[in-house]
Amino acid sequence: MRLHWFDKCLLTITQLAVTSVVIFMICGVGALVWILLSHYNIEVPGTISVMIVPTVITTIIHIFPAIISYLASLEHYNNKRTELYVTVVRNYVVAATIIGTLIAFWIINSTSHCWQTHLGEEIYRLVILDFIASLFGTCLHLARSKLYKKLSTKVCRPEFDIARNTLNLIYNQTLFWMGFYFSPLMSVMIVIKLIFIFYVKRYELKRYYQRPSRPWRAAQTQTLFLALAFLSIIIVLFTIGYVITNVKSNECGPFRNHPHTWDFIVDGMLSLKRDSPFWNVVSKLASPVTGAVILIGMCIAVYCLRAETKASEEMLRILSDMLLLQSQDKQFLLKTFGKCANKRAPVPNEINLSQDVGLAEENCGNEEVLLSRRRNLPSTSFEER
Asked: Do the Cβ atoms of 42 and 114 come closer than 8 Å?
């Protein structure tokens, strides 16, 4: 169904307006988290002030996906898959903005006493509150399921929100990698939490959710999820690398006797000297320029592989069309041969008639031969003599 040019303009304006609103909301979320962190008392944390920032962040993580999904439904995309992709990417940007603001604030304020410990505590509180919020959401779905059984005409069963659950999974994976450096034991706790949440979600999906109005193939969302998860891991690794090499480790922590964590790795673990040739090679390999070159090379390799895949798909399509044309040619030839055979084959009545005519002609020929032979024989009649 083709849209009129006025409808297309109106749809484009609506999509641009919704995108602007989403960008404004994301910027507002980042500014809100930064303001709350700025008013947070680092030196003498109180009980209430400690829980303000993680509570606000957890609320945003669990409420914003519903708002973004509603805004995406107002854009009226022609393809539901496009709507899903846009929603997932926007939710991912929200989570990346929140975690990026949190990490950037603590890195900028790294001059404070034991900032790594405070950041680890912040991540711990985020993990605990996210676990509580997930269980609370399960209880809400249980209550909605009970209402559905009693008031099935007024309350409908919810559909499984792929975008929100994808955001929650990537959010927990990012916290896992950040906690792996700042608080290693926290990673074990996050793994246990994710395993428990997986079985809770599985039970919840079977009991409380209805089947989606439009079924999705796993490949349609798996590729996007893997791409976003890979991007988040790369960003986290670069952040941790920057903390290790450039941010000073202060008076507390396992690296307090070294200016940077990298110095502990080089001097303590590898026992390298600053002026040795191996140290110069390692320094050059660990430089940002080398990392940028490697990253660009990886991007070029991915682009080449993608182009090769697209070319293979195009060749497969061409070969499929050729096979289809050859099969059609074969069918045409078989039909032509059949028509020719039917035209040359005689009808049964005509076959019998031709056989009778042949027999009659053969009999006549035999009679003529007998008469000619009789004429050639000598006569024995008395009258003829």
From this structure: no
Domain ranges, ordered by start, for the chain: 1-267, 273-312
76 three-state secondary structure: coil
Q: In whole angstroms, give the CA distance from residue 47 to residue 124.
A: 15
**Separation between Cα atoms, residue 238 and residue 292, nearest integer Å:** 11
Q: How many CB atoms are located within 10 Å of the residue 162 CB?
A: 18
Q: Which two tokens stand for residue 187?
A: 């990673």
Nearest 5°: CA angle at 43, between 98 and 26?
15
> Which string of b and e fits 189-210 if b means at least 16 CB within 10 Å?
bbeebeeebeeebeebeeebbe
In 3-state terms, what secondary structure has residue 46? coil
Please enumerate in sequence order all residues whose Cβ is within 8 A of that of 242, keeping only pairs 6 or more positions apart, or say none. 107
At 105, list the tokens.
């604030």
Which single residue is written with the structure tokens 């050059």?
284
Q: What pTM did the predictor assign?
A: 0.66
Please name which of 99, 27, 89, 35 lies closest in space to residue 61, comparing C-alpha atoms.
Answer: 99
Alpha-carbon distance of 14 to 28, in angstroms, equals 21
3-state secondary structure at position 210: strand
Q: Is 288 exposed, middle or buried (0-12, 13-18, 19+ CB in 10 A)?
A: exposed
Angle of helix 184-207 relative to helix 162-182, nearest 10 degrees, comes to: 160
Structure tokens that stand for 199 in this block: 């079985």
pLDDT band at 103 (very low <50, low <70, confident <90, very high): confident
Q: What is the pLDDT of residues 337-356, one digit of tens each?
A: 777 877 765 545 544 545 55
Instruction: Give residue 385's pLDDT band: very low, low, confident or very high (50, 70, 90).
Output: very low
3-state per-residue secondary structure call for 292-303: HHHHHHHHHHHH
Q: Which of 154, 184, 17, 174 is nearest to 91 (CA)?
A: 174
More confident site: 286 or 95:
95
Give me the percent of the chain exceeding a pLDDT of 70: 69
Give me the residue label for tokens 């659950």: 165
Query: What is the rounded CA–CA span in Å between residue 349 and residue 354?
Result: 9
Percent helix, strand and coil across the chain, each rounded to 5? 80, 0, 20
